[in-house]
Automatic annotation (TrEMBL), chain A:
Domain of life from the UniProt record: Bacteria
Spans traversing the lipid bilayer: 48-74, 147-167, 187-208
GO cellular component terms attached to this protein's record: ATP-binding cassette (ABC) transporter complex
Protein name: Nickel transporter
Lineage, opening ranks: Bacteria, Pseudomonadati, Pseudomonadota, Alphaproteobacteria, Rhodobacterales
Species: Salibaculum griseiflavum
UniProtKB/TrEMBL annotation, chain B:
Taxonomic lineage of the native organism: Bacteria, Pseudomonadati, Pseudomonadota, Alphaproteobacteria, Rhodobacterales
Places the protein is found: Cell inner membrane; Cell membrane
Organism: Salibaculum griseiflavum
GO biological process: amino acid transport
Keyword Transcription: no
Name the record gives this protein: Amino acid ABC transporter permease
Length: 215, 218
């Protein structure tokens, strides 16, 4: 193992890891917003809105995220969408993650007993009030852990933007493998950084999950 | 520049060929991940400590890093240690191992949830521990775990697009070839997405049928 080489290149990996973290955070935020929107659409009273929500989930979960990214980044200019690689990465991955989070959020909401809403309505709350004051606070507790799984997948999925040349961890590893022919060393550098990011995120989610549980 | 789908039919032949490659690679990797998953599960549960612990570390690394990074390691790593495999073989190995680890997690849980009495009964009628595992415990565990493994296989199909990055001429790279000739990325990536979507729907249909079968057989 070439420790000298690893010591020489690791600063580049640290910079790249920071890009991966930024990508992950922005993608997660967009994914959550899309997930909330998607879940509301899937639970809507209107059949057309429900259909749009279901089509969103089915299409974006049914095709590779890499292809979605390529359509946005390479195909976008043809329909007037000009994005740089980082923006395309965040938007493409965020919309993709949103489709998965839609199902997570919807699953948590529909698992809350119907009697809760009915009881709220009986006490004179409106439909909206019952949703926001009774259903969502309870559903939010159930969402934390599965959303954590979504987040874990999403962090690993940020590696895809290497294919559109965003200089994040996987791209950096790929470039140094190409120039040094030391695949194992470069994998080790990038892998350790990914695992630190994923481990830290996992701990944060576990902490949040404990905080929101009723004891 | 606008969209013009009339260029698509002229390149449909390489798209279809790519589609066939995608299906072939996905099937081969799925088989590897299924049987690999069983082997990994048995190692993780029953191998001696000295094998089990390093093995768990490797599993942990596979679950904590992106598939794309693993593909680079396997493709370039094999070349470096003198094994020069065609890219598609490296792709199958990478996809297969990656998903074998995820399948192994499922199978481990399933093996542990098979009633202990099954193993004891098998030992009582004279089977060795290995035989009891192979003929009694694992078949029951595998049946329980087929629906979630089905989800992994659908994920595998979509992730097979990643092997285009190491130069395997499957559906995604075929689309890129057509784009190279026509400069029409939107059209061809959309066509590729459509093919993936159709394969995906077929897999979901098969999965539902298998699930129904299993629930009847119980």
């Amino acid at each position: 193992m070439d420790i000298d080489l690893m010591m020489r290149v690791y600063p580049f990996f640290l910079t790249a890891a920071w890009t991966t973290i930024q990508l992950s955070v922005l993608t997660a935020l967009l994914g959550l917003a899309m997930g909330a929107l998607g879940a509301s659409a899937r639970l809507s009273r209107f059949a057309l809105v429900r259909f749009i929500g279901a089509a969103y989930v089915s299409l974006f979960r049914g095709t590779p995220a890499l292809i979605q990214l390529f359509i946005l980044y390479f195909g976008g200019p043809q329909i007037g969408i000009q994005l740089d690689a980082f923006e395309a990465g965040v938007i493409g991955l965020g919309i993709n993650a949103g489709a998965y989070m839609t199902e997570t959020i919807r699953g948590a909401i529909i698992s809350i007993d119907k009697g809760q809403r009915e009881a709220g309505r009986t006490l004179g709350l409106s439909q909206w009030q019952a949703t926001y004051k009774i259903i969502l606070p309870q559903a939010a507790r159930l969402m934390v852990r599965p959303l954590g799984v979504n987040l874990n997948m999403l962090i690993k999925a940020t590696a895809l933007v290497a294919a559109i040349s965003v200089v994040e961890l996987t791209y950096t590893a790929q470039r140094y493998i190409g120039s040094t022919y030391k695949p194992f060393e470069m994998f080790l550098l990038a892998g350790v950084l990914y695992m630190i990011i994923i481990y830290a995120t996992g701990r944060a989610v576990a902490w949040l999950d404990r905080r929101v549980q009723i004891t | 520049m606008g969209l013009d789908f009339t260029v698509v039919p002229g390149h449909l032949d390489i798209i279809l060929l790519g589609c066939a490659w995608t299906i072939g690679i996905a099937v081969a990797a799925a088989l590897l991940s299924f049987f690999g998953g069983i082997v990994f599960a048995v190692i993780a549960l029953y191998a001696p400590w000295i094998i089990r612990q390093p093995f768990r570390l490797i599993e942990w690394v596979f679950m904590g890093t992106p598939l794309l990074l693993q593909l680079f390691l396997i493709y370039f790593g094999l070349v470096q240690i003198g094994i020069d495999l065609p890219a598609f073989v490296a792709g199958i190995i990478g996809l297969g191992l990656h998903f074998a680890v995820y399948n192994s997690e499922l199978i481990q849980t399933a093996i542990l949830s098979v009633d202990k009495g099954q193993m004891e009964a098998a030992r009582t009628v004279g089977l060795s521990r290995g035989q009891a595992l192979r003929k009694v415990v694992i078949p029951q565990a595998v049946r329980d775990v087929i629906p979630p493994i089905g989800n992994n296989m659908i994920a595998l199909l979509k992730d097979s697009a990643l092997v285009s990055v190491i130069g395997v001429s499957e559906l995604t790279l075929s689309a890129q070839r057509a784009i190279g000739a026509t400069y029409r990325p939107f059209e061809f990536y959309l066509v590729a997405a459509m093919f993936y979507y159709v394969i995906n729907l077929c897999m979901e249909w098969v999965q539902r049928r298998i699930e129904r079968r299993i629930s009847i057989s119980r």
